[in-house]
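Q: How would the C-alpha cells look for this protein?
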Amino acid sequence: MAPRPEPVQQAEGRAGSGENLAGPGEDLAVARGRLAEAQGRVVRALVAGGEVPDGFDAARLRAQAASLVAKRRSIVARLRPDAAVAAGADLAAEFAAYARARGEPPPGYRADADGFAAWLRERGRLPDPPRRRTPWWRRRVP
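A: Here is the predicted structure in C-alpha cell form.
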C-alpha cells in the first residue's frame, strides 16, 4: 500500500479576503496598492512591451507576450479579412509592428481590427474604403 500524502495546510484567513496581503504593521490598503502596482508591471510587460518585473523569467514572459499578439492577430484577421489580405504574407510582421507601435491594445477586438486597418492604410498597404453613394431616391434635385 502506498503512503498517504501529507494533508495540505490551509492559509490563515478566508481565501480571497485579502487578510494575508499585508505584512506585519502594514495597512491593508497600502498592501493592496503594492499588489496592484506589481500586477500592472506584469500586464505592461505582457501587452505593452514593458520591462520584465523582478522574479519573472524573461524568456517565458516574452513567449507569452508573443502568444498574446498572435491571438490578437488571428482575431483581427477574422474580423477584418480585407486587412489580412492587404498585409498578405507579411501579416505576422505587420501586425507585430502595429502592436509594438501601439503599446497597449485598444479596448475590444473590433477597435483593434479597425486600428490595424487604419495603420495599414496610413502605410499605403490598404486602399481607402469606397465612398458610399447616396441612393438615387434620396438625392435632391436642385
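The mean pLDDT is 85.

The helical segments are 28-47, 58-79, 81-87, 91-102, 109-122.

Upvote if useful.
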